[in-house]
Structure formats: structure tokens, C-alpha cells
């Protein structure tokens, strides 16, 4: 009976998790990646960044870096120490908190002269309900409820 009860609990949790883990990966600059002479603000416009989402910065190793800065650092292209730079060429940053986020390249004058910088606003994890969002959530919610009902029916 304990094994059966464990299965029921697991199935209920499994049915709820998909609705809770809607994190998206955003490849900064899409196919262009993290590079010079690209309009990152235009790229970011219209995107809905949420807590838990991931920014992926793709670039050739050694050609660029990624620095997380504050608003002043963004406006004035103030570089942090090299030890704080991301340099892997496939850097992933999890958006862990809501608010404004600023990123620049710390190589040469890429930020100042070539516009290699990104500003985004991260929203809370769960979007506010609007007229459109309940319709988008219906398939996941329906699936979750269906799995829960079938699991409970099989359990008893």
C-alpha cells in the first residue's frame, strides 16, 4: 500500500510540475549570437523575460566576454575586473530575480563603439492573468487535471 501511495503522490507532482516549469532559453542575438554591431535592444523588444528563464550568450572564445553591470556601468560601458567576466563562449545566465538587468562586452571598445550591450527587464515567474493567457494555459492545466483524476481513480 505504501508503494501504491508513493506512486499516487509522484503522479500528482509529475502532473503539476509542467505548469510550474515554463522557463525559456533565450539565445541572445539568435543566430548572430553575442557580437558587435548588432541591435540588442531591438532583439529584446517584445520578449517576455521571466524569473527562471535563461540567457545564452554564444560567441567565439576570446573574441568577447559577458559582464553583468548596473545601470551606470551599462550607460557608460564601465568594465568590471576581468575576473568577473564570463568567457566560455557559451555562457548561460539564469534570471534569478525580477528587475532590470544589464550586460556588456568587456573586450576593447565593443560596448562603447560597437553597441555590444543588452538591457532587459525580468518579470516575476508567473505572468499576470490576462484574457489571452488563460487560453494558453488550458492544454497544460487540462493535462495536469486529467493525469491527477486518472491516477486517483486507479488508486482507489
Structure description:
- Keywords: Membrane, Signal, Transmembrane, Transmembrane helix.
- Residues 1-23 form the signal peptide.
- This is Phytocyanin domain-containing protein.
- By secondary structure, the protein is of the alpha/beta class.
- The chain has a domain at 23-126: Sandwich (Immunoglobulin-like), CATH 2.60.40.
- Helices cover 37% and strands 20% of the residues.
- The protein is built from five helices and seven strands; from the N terminus they run αβαβββαββαβα.
- The protein has helices at residues 2-20, 40-44, 71-76, 110-114, 133-155, and strands at 25-27, 49-50, 54-58, 67-69, 90-94, 99-104, 117-123.
- Strands 2-7-6-4 form a four-stranded mixed sheet. Strands 1-3-5 form a three-stranded mixed sheet, with no helix packed on it.
- The relative contact order is 0.21.
Amino acid at each position: 500500500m505504501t508503494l501504491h501511495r508513493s506512486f499516487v503522490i509522484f503522479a500528482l507532482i509529475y502532473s503539476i510540475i509542467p505548469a510550474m516549469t515554463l522557463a525559456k532559453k533565450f539565445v541572445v542575438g539568435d543566430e548572430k549570437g553575442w557580437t558587435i554591431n548588432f541591435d540588442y535592444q531591438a532583439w529584446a523588444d517584445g520578449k517576455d523575460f521571466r524569473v527562471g528563464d535563461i540567457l545564452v550568450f554564444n560567441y567565439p572564445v576570446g573574441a568577447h566576454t559577458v559582464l553583468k553591470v548596473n545601470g551606470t556601468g551599462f550607460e557608460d560601458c564601465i568594465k568590471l575586473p576581468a575576473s568577473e567576466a564570463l568567457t566560455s563562449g557559451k555562457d548561460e545566465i539564469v534570471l534569478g530575480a525580477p528587475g532590470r538587468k544589464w550586460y556588456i562586452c568587456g573586450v576593447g571598445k565593443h560596448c562603447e563603439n560597437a553597441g555590444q550591450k543588452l538591457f532587459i527587464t525580468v518579470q516575476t515567474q508567473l505572468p499576470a492573468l490576462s484574457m489571452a493567457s488563460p487560453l494558453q494555459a488550458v492544454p497544460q492545466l487540462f493535462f495536469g487535471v486529467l493525469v491527477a483524476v486518472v491516477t486517483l481513480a486507479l488508486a482507489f
